[in-house]
Amino acid sequence: MNSRFESKVFIVTGGSSGIGLAVADRLAAEGATVVIGARRTEVGEKAAADIRDRGGKAVFVPADVTREDDAARLVGEALDRFGKLDGAFNNAGSIEAPGEVRTLSSADWATELTTNLTSVFHCLKHQIPAVTRTRGAIVNNASNMGSVALPGMSAYIAAKHGVVGLTKAAALEVADSGVRINAINTGGVDTPLGRSSAGSDEVLAQIAALHPVNRLAKPEEIAPLVALLLSDESSFITGAALAIDGGFTAR
Known about the structure:
There is one protein chain. The protein has helices at about 20-30, 40-55, 70-80, 105-135, 155-175, 190-200, 200-210, 220-230; strands at about 10-15, 35-40, 55-60, 85-90, 135-140, 180-185, 240-245. The chain is α/β, with parallel strands linked by helices. The protein has a single domain (about 10-245), classed as Rossmann fold (3-Layer(aba) Sandwich), CATH 3.40.50. The protein has a 7-stranded parallel β-sheet, with helices on both faces. The longest helix is centred in the middle third of the chain and has 29 residues, at about 105-135. The termini are far apart.
């Protein structure tokens, strides 16, 4: 087992499946203690147990980070149990309300922003003070829709653009404290949530075809970049939004 993160403690939100679980797995495999925060208790408990069965260190804390109290409690649990927080991967989010600006309801707009942008604000607000004490790092998952756009996803795209802007602003606010904050702009990733959102293999294939590499990523292909950004090896990278999207935004 690689020990790059030996004695480190990381929070992973949305860590019970897909990209979040792959990142939690990777961090634990490299020696970290991982605090998984997610809404689904049964799935989250299993994810943490599976990591422990593979020799890693992981605990699950039920948390819906669209609620500030839950985001604060998640950080508090990490500090109470392990005494510190070295970093976080903020990955909670989903496409809640597809639709065009001219047809989208105000309620759906608010739901989408709460799920994908306000949740990241809640996490950063409560993670930064703890991570400042360890001079650690935070990574936000912003999606390739944080830098480009497609029709019919206006609220989601606005939220993900917001995550990129929030990441940059927060990174500048804490740059002199030794804390680094970055975003990753992921392309299509083959996850249970992605398959559910697509609705059919045909739609999934159409999404894959939008990428020059003509396929979707596996969650395990995203995890190494997140691990790098959380490590001291990326000590001069902050305020960045790094594409990991199979060439989607290169065109």
